[in-house]
Amino acid sequence: MDAVDFKIACQNVFRKNPVVIVGTGLSVSMKIPGMKELQAHLIESLPSIIKNGLLDEWQTCTESIKSHGLEAGLSKVQVSTELLTHIVNISADYINKFDATVRKEIFCSPTQSFPFSKLLAFLFKGLPPTTSAVNVITPNYDHLVEYACDIAKIECINGFSGYAVGTFNEGELKTDYYTPYIRAERQRSVRDFKMHQSIRLFKPHGSLHWQKLGDHVFQHSELFPESKRILITPGLTKFEHSLTDPVMNSIRESANQCLRNATAAIIIGYGFNDSHLQTVLNQRISEGMECLIITHTLSENAKALISKNNRLIGIEATGEKDKESLCYANDVSFTISEQLWDLKVFISNILGL
After folding, report:
1. Cβ atoms within 10 Å of 267's Cβ, excluding its own
2. Is a pLDDT exceeding 60 seen at residue 45?
3. For the chain, which end, N or C, has fewer CB atoms within 10 Å of the first or last residue's CB respectively?
4. Helix, strand or coil for residue 262?
């Protein structure tokens, strides 16, 4: 496969109304901390706000984290509800500061340049009239997908409706809507309906502004007194919380259904290291679903999947100062002298935007 054929193969994935999966690689590219930075921040910050037995419990967690990393480390120890609440709040406050900085940079820029926004707009413009949404799934807590939709002036449906305080409505993520319009037919006006189209966003690990107060689940930019953040953190409790929390369970099931129905996927900055998120994704890949994976560095898990499934296309950085791309397709790998792993370059050179 030469460079021209490879680019055509990438373009073909975009024609199949793919589901989009966004990992932490996109966040890191926008200078929002990834797992390593969050791990360091937790180890540094938590001891100053906890005491007595929680300090001993956190010391056990810290030893496991230092040995295995944040995700795997917390998965090997039992974390109490009290300590977990501290971990969630510190993580959210830390990421929220960077999220706010990115928001300011994006929306205060005269050009509002955000390559991911162009990618979503391209997919949205190509939606068939009978298709209601571009489905986007992300484990990220931040709001990069939401910002991308705002820049592209596309409605983003995330399961919450309302102006000042958004309330969760399970049907928002499961229901197709139709907009009435008037069309001309043989010199008369006829009332008809067309599919209402949007970006449909699934965040199965929660979001920075999602909260729960009693039984009321809502989103707001400020944390309400006594409310609890809705975030699923790494660790043994991840599966338990995703199944027992009705909001997270609903979102997870809806996201999985999108994957079951998808014929293709575009995967950006995701390392295939989260068994909680990718069970159905891996199943669909084994069934032959086409995937385009774009990232700076392919994880070992991603490379293993590519080696076993020739319908997967992979792009990662290579060469001096990452000026080239190592591409995988049809059981072969080859180098292209363009930074296709960079979304800005990919969108320009592959999509012509």
Report:
1. 27
2. yes
3. C
4. coil
Question: Using CA of residue 20, residue 25, residue 27, residue 33, what is the dihedral sign?
Answer: positive
Q: Does the pTM exceed 0.70?
A: yes
> What CA–CA distance (Å, rounded) separates 272 from 300?
9
Q: Cα–Cα distance between 315 and 298 in angstroms, integer? A: 8
List pLDDT tens digits, range 284-309: 999 999 999 999 999 999 999 999 99
Tokens encoding 82: 């009290």
Six-digit token string for 19: 């589901």
Tokens for 144? 């990069």
Helix 144-152 / helix 115-125 crossing angle, nearest 10 deg: 60
Percent of the chain with pLDDT over 90: 69
- Which tens digit of pLDDT belongs to each residue from 236-271? 566 556 556 788 889 999 999 999 999 999 999 999
What is the rounded radius of gyration, in angstroms, for the C-alpha atoms of the chain?
21
Query: Rounded to 5 degrees, what angle do the CA atoms 271, 277, 282 make?
Result: 75
The tens digit of pLDDT for each residue in 309-329 reads: 989 999 999 999 999 999 999
Sole residue written with tokens 């949205």: 124
C-alpha–C-alpha distance, residues 332 and 6, integer Å: 11
Q: Where are the alpha helices (DSSP H) in the chain?
A: 3-14, 24-29, 35-45, 53-68, 70-74, 81-108, 115-125, 144-152, 237-244, 246-261, 275-286, 300-308, 343-349
Segment 7-23 shows an average pLDDT of 96
Q: What is the pLDDT of residue 17?
A: 95
* Bridge-based pairing state of the strands 189-195 and 178-184: antiparallel
What type of residue sits at position 321? K
- Show Cβ contacts of residue 173 under 8 Å, excluding neighbours closer than 6 positions: 157, 158, 159, 200, 202, 250, 251, 254
